[in-house]
Amino acid sequence: MSHDIFALATEIRRRFREGDARLPILPEAVIEVRKIVQDEEKGAADIARVIGNDTTFSTTVLRIANSARFKTGSHEIRNLSMAIQRLGGRRTLQLMTAISAQLHLAVKDKGLQALLRESTQHSLLVATAAQHMAKLIGSVDPEEAFMAGMLFDVGVSAIVCAVPKELASCNIEESHHILSQLHREMGGRLLTYWEMPDSFISLASHHGVESDDRPRENLIDLIDAVQFMLADSDYKSPFDDIPEGVDALHYPPMQRLGINETHLAAVEVELEDGFEELQSIFSLSS
Fold first, then answer.
1. Which of 20, 31, 41, 241 is most buried, most CB within 10 Å of its CB?
2. One domain for residues 78 and 172
3. Which domain covers residue 37, as residue numbers?
4. Does 135 share its domain with 97?
5. Is the pLDDT at 1 greater than 80, yes or no?
6. Is 222 found in the same domain as 203?
């Protein structure tokens, strides 16, 4: 490697610690919707008025409300107020945050664009598998599992936005090394900055590592179990080290959740169609 990776990692940490990092900022629409959700006198129509001014949010929220993974009725929803009523205000806010993490990031360097696409594609895979696995095992809310899949790797975006010039000067191997080393720490910082629930902050900070200080939370175990399953199906995580030579059913997160071969087979069947649907929703189909 031609760059001093340790020095660059130290510099990234310094920028985050001292407030010099250019963190991804939540769009104004998300901030406005957060205020509305916290106001008991306001509701779906108020959220719809805010979202309606942003084409990306309005289009994506409508697609999600009509998707198989969130649809609760047989009729198609064509207006935002009904979509938000179906999803709920708090869930709509979390979806907007997830959308912001995936689609509201702009970098000029093509190499960094490729890294963000890689991260987004993997997050969609994890979100698809995590939601379906949660439905099967029953110990994690499926919709929370979906959000977790969308947000657990958000530290990649945080780092890319914080030090774009430094990362752009690195080769692919160096960039992946930096992101792998720091994305959990910086993901936790970013979700704290965004005032996300503690469960998501804990997930971003601790996923992918079995350690003494790892919180014993089902949501973290679910994302780790799904990433292990995906790696076993040739969908290797770009930024987390997945244990090799371990039988899936002996992997600790799988054991803690009680995941069995039937669960794994069912998720693999769901994965292809569900992933294609999410790609379409997020306009990422090739």
1. 31
2. no
3. 25-104
4. no
5. no
6. yes
Q: Are 3 and 172 in contact (CB under 8 A)?
A: no
Q: How far is CA 279 from CA 68, 133, 272, 276, in A?
A: 13, 19, 11, 5
Out of 47, 82, 104, a domain closes at: 104
Q: What angle do CA 9, 12, 14 make, to 5 degrees?
A: 110
Are 34 and 88 within one domain?
A: yes
162 and 206 belong to one structural domain: yes
Number of structural domains (the chain) is 2
Tokens of 9: 């990692």
Angle between helices 89-103 and 80-87 (to 10 degrees): 100
Q: What is the DSSP string of the chain?
A: --S-HHHHHHHHHHHHHHT-S-PPPPPHHHHHHHHHHT-TT--HHHHHHHHTT-HHHHHHHHHHHTSTTT--SSSPP-SHHHHHHHH-HHHHHHHHHHHHHHHS-----HHHHHHHHHHHHHHHHHHHHHHHHHHHH-SS-HHHHHHHHHHTTTHHHHHHHHSHHHHHTS-HHHHHHHHHHHHHHHHHHHHHHTT--HHHHHHHHHTT---TTS---HHHHHHHHHHHHHHHTT---SSSPPP-S--GGGSHHHHHHT--HHHHHHHHHHHHHHHHHHHHHTT---
What's the pTM value of the predicted model, to 2 decimals? 0.85
For the stretch 232-268, pLDDT in tens is: 888 889 999 999 889 999 999 999 999 999 999 999 9
